[in-house]
Amino acid sequence: MENPFESGHIRNYILFYAGVVLIMVLFFFASTLFNTVPKLEKKVFNTQKRAIKAQEKHLKETPKTPFKLKILEQSY
User: Fold this and answer.
1) For the whole prediction, is pTM greater than 0.85?
2) How far is CA 16 from CA 5, 40, 75, in A?
């Protein structure tokens, strides 16, 4: 087995690593330059309470239906 420091192969490894880092940096710059982020408008919610009509109140007060399952009287 050859020593990569003596045979000159270390230069190839360093060049390969530098090339990968350079490609990563180029992709980073390309993604930041060409990616336009649209500005979103601020959402405003209605905070005023609306008056509940008599009909809506009547619909909310529906009679409760009995349960089909019986709840145990004692908890374990």
Assistant:
1) no
2) 15, 42, 69
